[in-house]
Amino acid sequence: MPPPRKSKPRTPELGALGEAIRRLRNEAGISQELLAERAATDLTQIGGIERGTRNPTYFTLVRVAEALKTRVGEIATLADDLVDQELPGP
Known about the structure:
single chain, about 90 residues, 5 helices, globular, about 0% strand, mainly alpha
């Protein structure tokens, strides 16, 4: 189990996006380091995205999705579902 987060996500949506990527990465059985390498980005970028403290560009999301062998839409759908679980209904 990872240690508790020291910083909170910038927004619930960025937190959900990061959690979606973390879940897909864990399902794929790869480390943050390997994801960063496959997505041609820096490890700190992946860590920040997963913590919800960085707002990735669309191009970065495309590279992350390709590295996870999925599509940006799948990541976004999972993130939307996570936001819906966290936010109170009408």
